[in-house]
Amino acid sequence: MNMKVTHIDYRRLIILAFLIVLMAVIASLTIGRDIYESGERSIYSFAIVNFFGYLFFFLLMPMELAFIFYLRTGYDPLILNMVAVATAMASQTIDYLIGYFFSAKIIDNLIGQKRYEKAEDEIRKYGNWALFLSNLLPLSSPIISLAAGMLKYRVKEALFFSFIGMICRYLFLTLLFQG
Q1: N or C terminus: which one in the chain shows less Cβ crowding within 10 Å?
Q2: 44: left (phi over 0), alpha (psi -120 to 50) or beta
Q3: Which residue numbers delimit the VTT domain (predicted)?
């Protein structure tokens, strides 16, 4: 019987724990505060949660569920879509720039080498389609944006195809879940 011994990367575990606590604080200060103080959810809270949810290191937040939640509470779908796309694109632009300007070693310490190498392979293989589909489907679009930056992928194309995919995603969710 051959047992594999795994090594625990405590630094990555500490970073993950810190990010989870930070997510909880952000959610508490936005959605939680709105619900407890006024019984309502504000578009401002959604914007903050959506923005942080699309940064590559907050991949545990299901942004589509937050969007559906706010959509079902009666917000104007057009305003909600505009806020969702604008905040997601702002975050993805930051993801791209982090990939562009920071070394692979720093990014490896944050998210792991396998994750961004897989994303790089997808971009090399499928190009603009990878950017479009990762934003259309509930995939790791922040990782794809980060990898596009690391590859020095054409910024206008990266952002354009991300934008089109994001618009299609949120329009589809609106049509599917609007009250």
Answers
A1: N
A2: alpha
A3: 76-177
